[in-house]
Amino acid sequence: MTFEENKINDFLTFFDSIKHIVNNFPGCNGMQLLQDKQHPFIVFTYSNWQDESNLETYRNSDDFKRIWSTIKPWFAQKAEAWSVDVHFNGFKKKS
């Protein structure tokens, strides 16, 4: 997501207030917020869902509608989203 440069702090503050909603949504296995080091007004959310139906339930929820309606006016560009399959995972598992 690319935000207006003067809105990134608003987004980060708002995100801190709602991150638990998405992270704890039924079917969500976890979420991260990643911020570009060179262009800090560009951020990515990475979330892992049990299956596509859980993600669709979230996308159709009142929580998503409220979150999206708050942040959408802050975008500098149209947001993009992808659903992907993992072909390799080199991250270390916690023991």
Order of helix and strand elements from N to C terminus: HEEHH
- Number of helical elements: 3
Measured between the Cα atoms of the first and last residue, the distance is: 33 Å
Q: How many beta strands in the DSSP annotation?
A: 2
Outline the low-pLDDT stretches: none
CATH architecture: 2-Layer Sandwich
> Mean pLDDT score, rounded?
95
Helix content: 25-40%
* Beta content: 15-25%
Seen as an oligomer or otherwise, the chain set is single chain
Under CATH, the topology can be stated as Alpha-Beta Plaits
Radius of gyration: 14 Å
Largest sheet: 2 strands, antiparallel
Structure description:
With 95 residues, this protein is an alpha+beta fold. The protein has a single domain (5-74), classed as Alpha-Beta Plaits, CATH 3.30.70.100. The chain is built from three helices and two strands; from the N terminus they run αββαα. The chain has helices spanning 8-23, 52-59, 62-71; strands at 28-35, 43-49. The chain is globular. The model has no long low-confidence stretch (mean pLDDT 95).
Features:
95 residues; alpha+beta; Alpha-Beta Plaits; 2 strands; 16% strand; globular
What is the element layout, followed by pairings?
Elements: H1 8-23, E1 28-35, E2 43-49, H2 52-59, H3 62-71
Helix pairs in contact: 1-3
Concise summary:
The chain is 36% helix and 16% strand.
